[in-house]
Write a structure and sequence with these properties.
It holds the Pfam family Oxidored_q2. By secondary structure, the protein is mainly α. The protein contains three helices and no strands.
């Protein structure tokens, strides 16, 4: 059996890649993919601790997180389409005129 530390290191690496993508990119699609990476890192943690403790609670939470991620992508794609339709670009810094 693989030790749970390996799962935690993998999860930390995936989370850091997602955080790097959010902090450095301006493309809205990259934002969505980076948020998905961060949610998947949380899912890896849920499943790893679920296996370690011997119950299914973490796996159930992981399923809820996957459903949340699917809803987030649906809303995010709609926002990106409106952004592209109004500004002909998916760069999030060009949408400053949409602020109050």
């Amino acid at each position: 059996m693989i030790p749970s530390q390996y799962y935690l290191v993998l999860s930390a690496a995936v989370f850091c890649i997602g955080l790097f993508g959010i902090l450095t990119r301006r493309n809205a699609l990259i934002f969505l993919m980076s948020v998905e990476l961060m949610l998947n890192a949380a899912n890896i943690n849920f499943v790893a601790f679920s296996i370690q403790n011997g119950n299914l609670t973490g796996q159930v939470f992981s399923l809820f997180t996957i459903a949340l991620a699917a809803a987030e992508v649906a809303v995010g794609i709609g926002i990106i389409l409106v952004l592209y339709r109004n500004f002909n670009d998916v760069d999030v810094t060009t949408a400053t005129t949409m602020r109050w």
